[in-house]
UniProtKB/TrEMBL annotation:
Domain of life: Bacteria
Protein name: DUF2461 domain-containing protein
Pfam families: DUF2461 (PF09365)
Signal peptide interval: none
NCBIfam families, per database record: TIGR02453 family protein
Organism annotation: Luteimonas salinilitoris
InterPro entries named in the record: CHP02453, UCP028451
Length: 228
């Protein structure tokens, strides 16, 4: 079995959190490449067959530019926090049509003490969000299976950030999943401990997560008229 990340991966990210400066980063860029970026690219390359086994329409792309890996540089143009770098590394396993339309994705997050895997759609625009909500109302049995199956909920939690204060207008107040319609983000996620992220079974663990969250992703794709 292959390992990807190590204690040195977490050590670099912790140090970056303490010294989030361009001069420090450039002086330690070789450590970033060796212990964070390149291991993540290897993981993406190895995960690609596992992604295709779940859905032929999603990609784990290890390309250094334009692939699955997010840049570690922060966009500080409109932010009060001008720190130049993120203190984590993330990657998304994206739908083949994601450049042309809103689509769900899987997301992998590497951060000391806060690693996780997620599936779903984050911050969709209002028309997209309304389509998903309406689809849930029109297909409640499928939503119950995809998002509320006992085995699924034992392993994954539905993201609860940025919930509306009250259910959106225009939907029946007595709907079984009315609280789910308050969601701004339709995501399911699971924390992963650092030891697992740095261990030899990481790919197998993530492949299991891909399979387990496939019905949830399939449902969201159906809501948005996307192939799964």
């Amino acid at each position: 079995m292959t390992t990807y990340f190590s204690d040195r991966s977490f050590r670099f990210l912790r140090a970056l959190a303490r010294r989030n400066e361009r001069a420090w980063f450039h002086a330690h860029k070789a450590d970033y490449e060796a212990h964070v970026r390149e291991p993540f690219r290897r993981l993406l390359s190895d995960l690609h067959p596992d992604v295709l086994a779940v859905s032929p329409h999603f990609r784990a792309d290890p390309k250094p530019v334009g692939g699955s890996l997010f840049r570690i540089h922060r966009d500080t143009r409109f932010a009060n926090d001008k720190s130049p770098y993120k203190t984590w590394q993330g990657a998304r396993l994206f739908h083949e049509r994601s450049r042309e339309t809103a689509a769900p994705s899987w997301y992998l997050h590497l951060e000391p003490g806060d690693c996780f895997v997620a599936a779903g759609i984050w911050h969709p625009e209002s028309p997209v969000l309304r389509r998903i909500r309406q689809f849930v109302v029109d297909n409640p049995a499928g939503w119950k299976t995809a998002a509320h199956a006992p085995a699924f909920r034992r392993r994954y939690r539905l993201g609860s950030q940025e919930m509306l204060v009250r259910p959106p207008r225009g939907f029946p107040a007595d709907f079984e999943f009315i609280e789910d319609l308050r969601r701004r983000n339709f995501i399911a996620l699971r924390s992963i401990d650092d030891a697992t992220m740095a261990g030899p079974r990481l790919r197998q663990v993530l492949a299991r997560d891909l399979r387990a969250t496939a019905p949830f992703m399939d449902y969201l794709c159906a809501a948005l008229d996307l192939e799964f």
